Amino acid sequence: MKKLAIFTATLLSSIFSACGFYPYGEDLRFSFLNQNNFSFQSYSSFYYSALSFEQERNLINPNLDNEKLWRKYCDNKVLLTDISAVLDHFSFSEIHENSANPFLQYLYSKKDIEAINYLKFAKNCEYFNTWQDDPWERNENTADAKRDDLLNKAKILALKSKRTDFKKRYAFLALRLAFYKKDMKSIEKIYSQYFSADKTDDIIDIWALYFKSISENNLALKNLYFAKVFAASPEKRFVSWQYFAPKIQVDEVLNLSQNKKDKANVLLLYGLYNPDKNLENIKQIYNENSKFDGLNFLLYRELQKLENWVFTPYYSLFSVSIMEDFGYDSNDFENRNTLKILERSEIDRQYAKEVLEFIDSVDLTKVENPNFWKFARAELLLMTKNYSESLNQIAELEKVLPSQDPMLNNVEIIKGLNLFANQTFGNAKIPDAAKDIIIKNKNNKQFIFALGRELEYLGNTDDAAFLYASLENPSTENTNYNMVYYKSLKNSSQTYDTYYYNYFDYLDAVYSPEQMQSFINKIKNLNKNQDSFYSNFYSLNQLEINSLYDLLGTKYIRQNKLTLALNTFNKLGEKYFDAQYSLWERDGKDRYNSTGKIFNQNPFYHLKYTPDFIPEKEHFRVNKVSVTRKLIEYLNKANNPKEKDRDYYYFLVANCYYNMSQYGNVWMMRRYYVSSVGNYSIREDNKEFNTAALAKFYYGKAFENAQTDKFKALCLRMQGRCENYNFDFIGENSPNYSQTDNYEDRRFEQNKYYQDLKNKYSDQYEDMISGCESFKAYFKARR
């Protein structure tokens, strides 16, 4: 376990070097190869994974070789399950002539005393063939003495036994007892007396070779022996892999191999230790033993790697889930730049082409399971974007695969991906031929997400959003393939933390108002027309549609298209907003609602962290629709040349825009959440949200219409506050940003509004700069 522990510790230390959660590893890795659809369960501990190798605790040896050996001994007249029951579960005392077990009944009926005595002796040895002695080591000496006794008896019984098979069985028990006694010399002596590495006729020979491998001092020979054991015994595969020494040059081991089969066995284990491109190793194994099931598994594992290298970045826009594969630095921000990540995906498609060229050169009549190789070819054609040829290969497979073959499910998934990708930009849709496949696999979130990505890349954002929305179906929460995270092509190294857990947050960040409106229209038409595919697959309920309208109006706010925003909000009505955003009613049923989004202060009269200084002349229930309506009203008054209080209304408008920034009390007019660690975003109003530029503009308009020096000084003071936010935003997003000791002084000196306040309104300067206590008097002095 030492190798596994070191690997895991290294991986985890790199992952958690940054603060907070960031998706990594298996959470990100895209894999369409459902392991249950392929015949590699005996290699299950070695599936490609971000977690390295992990022993499959519930692995049952699918070959049942020892049981089969006993069944052959019983002239095939006893069931394997009955034999397993005795070998795995019976105690010494349960082996008797009155047993109801058919295996024991057979042996007693044949008066096979030698077999019965062997089983009893083996049961006596079981406790001592383990490291699990008394945890307090109180019986250590007793256990060692008993092992010695049993070891000597096993050697005597092996010597006296007249049957070769029982000689080997007793000798094997002696080997195992010597191993747990840590007596390597006895292992060498017993093995050489009863076994040979060149003669491995049955599972007893293989298990004996396992202990011989452990005691072997020649590391190259040790690797050769473990390779033999690994290939022949699924039960011993994980421990053989652990003992294997991959640092020994492969040629040293191959030179000791006496035949092509042994060479293929050796190459298999070296291939499993390679997390990088393994094509040359696969080619070598093909040349040595093309019928080897280990060759098929390595090809399967190479497909798993390529899915990670090609599909993980292509669909998720995250770096490959196992960055160590190619020497990725997890702290290198360039690797988080989505365009760089996609470039990497394209490079790996070239490697997929190399693997495809190898498969095309293979004589499929010489490999085990040619249909699997054809499937691999179909997926590699998908990876290399040869969609038409991939579909042709899939059509051939569909003709020859039995209807109950589980691999058909994976064939259909690859077919669906091909059908979606094999369309032109601007003309993409959900193909009719893929609809049954989608419904059948609607719980496979990675598959559905990938289909959505293909449509989004091809310009069909309506159906892409629909597929994304279906991932929120509560019925799929506890199914496999449950992890998907959203990222955008707009992401850069500055947006390290910008990823999204659900489709709503993704649409919030990425979709334009026009795309949102189109998606809403699509959903409404679907609900009206009752399209059979859409209704069978997923239906958005009215609460979700209301949330989408809410989002659409919010996007118009971000663009400062207030009339469009108000028209959209009006479609939802006052009751919706009272339930979602009002201080008076906190029990909104919408899943995106939280008390953190409650409007609890009027944004025209109150500023966050500032003592109230403006009399609240109008009282109204504050929510998105009322704020938007009032903002339009105040802007109309402020822009009206006949209005005598233009400066007043401009100041209220500026307050509202200020409060809609991250520094205000109605930030929820623009956002659905804010973060304490920064709000850099790919949303189109990112700068406005972080700098309150519109507030600064309208404080300036209030200044232009002001009639007293005190009110002008107050307007400059508020402009200066917004300007400081602008400095912060520019500085924090500069690669050379650092807050030195004189940072505040430098920021003040560069703030032209504060300098204007100092130079032009020197009498008011100290009052304005020293704090906010004088704001009330200065606002009152407006007239």
TrEMBL record:
Q: Name the keywords, alphabetized.
A: Signal
Question: Which residues constitute the signal peptide according to the record?
Answer: 1-18
What superkingdom heads the lineage? Answer: Bacteria
Query: What protein is this chain from?
Result: Tetratricopeptide repeat-containing protein
Species whose genome carries this gene: Chryseobacterium terrae
